Amino acid sequence: MPEDHHDVPEFIRQVGAKETRKLRAQRRVTRTVWSGLGMMGLVGWSVVVPTLVGAALGIWLDHRYPANHSWMLTLLIAGLTIGCVNAWHWVAKEQKEIRAEQEEKDADE
Do residues 51 and 103 both lie within one domain? Predict the structure, then answer.
């Protein structure tokens, strides 16, 4: 610990700044090509799964309860809509995180 009391606030500020940088580095996810491909895969599956579930449920309903309209087509479109909304949610969340990181980086400079 420095013996001169005038150096203590500067020392505390430096330690605080170093701690802040370390915490940010721990939170920050390394954005690589692979993480981008992973995100595209996540977005893709968030669209595909509800679409296929809707189509499968529609086929089951068409066989179980025949009607003048196609349940498969109706639920396929509903599943696709739900999947697109879900994908939009994931992309918006990721974009928000990227913006926050960029603003933190700009504030540090």
Answer: yes
